[in-house]
Amino acid sequence: MPPKNLKRKAAGDASGxxxxxxxxxxxxxxxxxxxxxxxxxxxTKNINRRAKTLKNVLGQERERERIDRERKREREREKxxxxxxxxxxxxxxxxxxxxxxxxxxxxxxxxxxxDVDSTAPGAIGSNANxxxxxxDIPTYISIEAPPSxxxxxxxxxxxxxxxxxxxxxxxxxxxxxxxxxxxxxMSTSTAKEYLSARGVTSxxx
Length: 205
Description:
This protein is mostly helical. Helices cover 55% and strands 2% of the residues. Residues 154-183 form the Vps72/YL1 C-terminal domain.
């Protein structure tokens, strides 16, 4: 017994006129054919560029911090030298203005210069020692940083809020009783999916 729609197919083939396919909504709303003036036409992707590892990134950060500390030291030394030059000029002017107490003024200025010279290296040395101590302090970007001693916070597997409670049956963490009511109505497969999203591969019975 021949199929019922055989005559219709034969009639459509005999006519030879195929109806054009209508564009879909995605094709009508697509903007891929529009020009993109915000893109640089001369841009070429660097094929030889390699992704930096964590060790390289941390090393570059340490080098950048070391350079910043050296620049700060240079600025402090320049400021100290300017202060020394200013104090020496003030001492010379005061010595030239005083006629009767010129000898005493020179002695005072010499004593002041000696004090500044004796304290300046110590101050610079103390700053350098402080900078050296800062280099040894571990930070969050250094691998040698110890783990945090604060207790780890737990978050709800459903809402993402803080979860002080844990369901003993499924092992899911929940925020309040409303979320617990939702967990009780879940199936086993859904609970497993939430646990796998958190990275826990426990068996839910």
